[in-house]
Amino acid sequence: MRNPFSLATKTALVTGANTGIGQAIALSMAQAGARVICAGRSDCDETLASISGGGGQGEYLRLELSDPTAAAATLATCGPLDILVNNAGVIRRGDAVEFSEADWDEVMDVNLKSVFFLSQAFARSAFARDTGGAIINIASMLSFQGGIRVASYTASKSGVAGITKLLANEWAARGINVNAIAPGYIATNNTATLQADPVRNRAIMERIPAGHWGTPADIGDSAVFLASGAAKYIHGAILNVDGGWLAR
Ligand code: NAP
């Protein structure tokens, strides 16, 4: 029977696949049948063990995203890819009036400049092989909202939403689906402090229509959808996976 959600025969590269949302995306894609290249600056042993434990195929690629040009050159040498997931991201907090250039540059390099140049390397390879593919960028609720004390993060994630649409406009007719996922509050290491703060945690949960935090697997399974044939007519979309947060 036809399975429009299968990723069998596909090769996916997921950045930041050692932990959190990236790890879950790698696992979900492997479960859907993809061979997954788990990319990041830290080893991905735990992710690879889960993939092989479930009978899937995975491998590690060392990728440091604070140098976007070098990262794009590395991606260009890693063999043909069908799916690119730009997941890795960092956040730096500080009042706008005191925000440092280092905290601006680091976040913009990892969260935005790398997303663009990895996507460019992916598209150049796809065009050279005359194949299509799928790019999924991990955006944020701060692709739509302002946030507070996270100037470079908000700028980077707003930029991710913008270039997702720009790249979709340029590449849709050439067979590359470019889309993004905007996660809501997802329980990862990144949000451990918020989860542990009883006042903030309660305020967050009261505002989420679903009434609870999301899990990394919620994002992983949504990424499988956007990478699959089921999403072949979806271009430039930003899929909110937020328990309804932005609907409030
Ligand atoms: P996380 O647990 O902190 O993971 C971040 C990932 O990015 C890690 O794999 C990290 O590697 C990698 N990374 C950071 N800097 C890097 C660099 N210079 N080079 C290579 N890799 C680098 O965060 P998460 O919650 O899973 O977040 C994943 C994505 O979802 C991010 O883009 C984040 O902005 C977005 N997001 C998360 C939430 C949420 O509620 N959790 C909400 C909205 C959006 P190391 O482990 O080696 O540092």
Attribute tags:
single chain; 248 residues; alpha/beta; Rossmann fold; seven-stranded parallel sheet; 16% strand; globular; binds NADP nicotinamide-adenine-dinucleotide phosphate
What's the short version?
The protein has 248 residues and is α/β, with parallel strands linked by helices. It has helices spanning 20-31, 45-53, 68-76, 101-129, 151-171, 192-196, 198-207, 216-227; strands spanning 11-15, 35-40, 57-62, 83-86, 133-138, 176-183, 238-241.
Notes on the protein architecture:
The structure is a single chain. The chain has helices spanning about 20-30, 45-55, 70-75, 100-130, 150-170, 190-195, 200-205, 215-225, and strands at about 10-15, 35-40, 55-60, 85, 135-140, 175-185, 240. The protein contains 8 helices and 7 strands, in the order βαβαβαβαβαβαααβ. Strand 2, helix 2 (about 45-55) and strand 3 (about 55-60) form a beta-alpha-beta unit. The chain has a 7-stranded parallel beta sheet with strand order 3-2-1-4-5-6-7, with helices on both faces. The termini are far apart. By secondary structure, it is an alpha/beta fold. It binds NADP nicotinamide-adenine-dinucleotide phosphate (NAP).
